[in-house]
């Protein structure tokens, strides 16, 4: 679930605990909604997103399958698995990202641990794959759950946009720049999912950029309605050449067994 050049919201990882976020099991059906190229004639897919409250941290697992049909009728399948553990004190993120192609051959294999070593949000990324690769975390970098809480806080506070740096382990290049446009905040209201009826939400559009590039075209863009418990509906995934919408088709919110 990626993501201009300045941290506009005064939020550090130690302040963004994602207190309102809960565990979840969510399943989305992905359908093609827009084409910007003649090389692709169709696309479909599915994404499963799980969050586990581990009391001292958040465990997340995302499994996504995409099938893209080329103009010659060829079907290209990609399967990605993204797994993280993010400590609730905002200091540590462990991550694994693997993606395979039609033949099951691995195309992407990134893994490692990122650690905030200073109060300003700076730190170190130590990759185990690629081996012996170490990068610096710039000051103000947020990890995924802290980034989610930052954009939810922006919605509650009536802000129009924020631009925090993000490191989520989905790129071997370190932290990314993100630009989050807040499109509206909703008080609790009836939805298609009873578990979300009592929960406020915020509509956001998130663009992800290579931090050191001057190119103003985002590497990836997504929009969604984010509920205060971390559940997202009305997904739009913009891959550049095409867009897909993600419809939430299954949702469960497990009970937390952590002591408050």
Outline the structure in words.
This protein is 5% helix and 52% strand. It is mainly beta and 260 residues long. The chain has one domain (24-252). It has a 15-stranded antiparallel sheet that branches. The two termini are 28 Å apart.
Task: Please name the defining characteristics of this protein.
15-stranded antiparallel beta sheet; 260 residues; 15 strands; mainly beta; globular; 5% helix
As a whole number of angstroms, the C-alpha radius of gyration is 18 Å
Low-confidence stretches: 1-18
Q: In percent terms, what proportion of residues is strand?
A: over 45%
Query: Helix and strand string, N-terminal first?
Result: EEEEEEEEHEEEEEEE
Number of domains: 1
DSSP summary, beta strand count: 15
Helix content: under 10%
